Amino acid sequence: MSKNKWSQDLVFLESTVTVFDDLKKMAINGANEGTCVVAEMQTGGHGRLKRNWISPKGGLYFAFLIRPNKQPIGLSLVIALWIVEFFEKKINLHCDILWPNDIFVNGKKLGGILLEGTTGENSYISVGVGLNINTEIKDEGRNPEGINPISIFELTKEKYNLRELMKELIDYIQIEYSYFELNSFEYYLENIKEHSLLNNKKIEVIDDVSFIGTVQDIGSNGELILLDENENKRTVWVCKKIRIL
User: Fold this and answer.
1) What residue ranges define each of the domains in the chain, with the CATH number in brackets?
2) What is the pLDDT of residues 199-223, one digit of tens each?
């Protein structure tokens, strides 16, 4: 990992189509680990499965580049945990993690994480993050998937300097990432479980074959473990959507 602070090389944009795609172009051209692109708004933001991510001015939308020295097991959950811990320490804000990659407060979505990577000689992982910070949420800005968003401004009634907040956050992530390189996913698992929004919840797992079950656990590789309505154990590694019943 670079000895320089990642915050020293932040690329700030007032607006872009998507920071995720901007970073991918830089990664293909050999950008260093820790390269981070930040925008105050996106015109074409998207989340997992190319779902639209409404990205109005006032949010914090960034993507950073990593080149891990091992298999990134459970990485989206681990990064979600780092962001949750950052806000707990920074502004005493309790957040929850919605498996596998979202951050919630009071049952509303504060942000999400998107990972995409390549293998081979120039292997890398692009980590995209969208967070509602100073955003004033209006009804017309509701997520088309039906998940109500919330912003830190709505929660604290304070506006934040996005550039300064971003510098603090990416430095925090850099420090935690250096530990991630040395530890297994199981090192983080108990803290992830403590912050999980799905603990003991009855949910619908929506995929090509959907089912209803009660969440029992998160496994040692980040998988979701449930008991379905027929009392059968089910393991979910990926799905299109989770709906809490």
Assistant:
1) 6-194 (3.30.930.10), 202-244 (2.30.30.100)
2) 999 999 999 999 999 999 999 999 9
